Amino acid sequence: MEERQQQEIDLTKVYDYAEFPDKVSGRCDNCNSAYFKSSVKGGVFLREYRECGMKKSI
Fold first, then answer.
1. What dihedral angle (degrees, nearest 10) is formed by the CA atoms of 48, 46, 5, 8?
2. Looking at residue 46, what is its pLDDT?
3. Is 52 exposed, middle or buried (0-12, 13-18, 19+ CB in 10 A)?
4. Residue 36: Cβ within 10 Å count
5. What Å distances lie between residue 35 and 4, 6, 27, 43, CA to CA?
6. 50-55 contacts at long range (C-beta below 8 A, 24 or more positions apart)
7. What is the distance between the alpha carbons of residues 20 and 14, in angstroms, rounded to a whole number?
8. Given this model, what pLDDT does residue 55 score?
């Protein structure tokens, strides 16, 4: 867990929720915001945080 906290978060990459779950449920690991937009494309649910642009595939 500590290893993940020290990692840099690449905002151009789409993270998989199963491999990189939220530290605090429903909040961004990068900016701690709960404000995001979501979309579904090809059966994949994508969550993009509006403040920093971090993306997670749920």
1. -70
2. 95
3. middle
4. 17
5. 22, 24, 8, 22
6. 52/11, 52/28, 53/11, 54/9, 54/11, 54/15, 54/28, 54/29, 54/30, 55/11, 55/13, 55/14, 55/15
7. 10
8. 95
pLDDT at res. 1: 45
| CA distances in angstroms from 29 to 19, 38, 41, 43, listed in the order given | 13, 17, 23, 24
Burial label, 46 (beta-carbon count in 10 A; 0-12, 13-18, 19+): middle
Q: Which backbone phi and psi does 55 adopt, to 5 degrees? A: -120, 140
Determine the pLDDT at residue 8.
Answer: 83
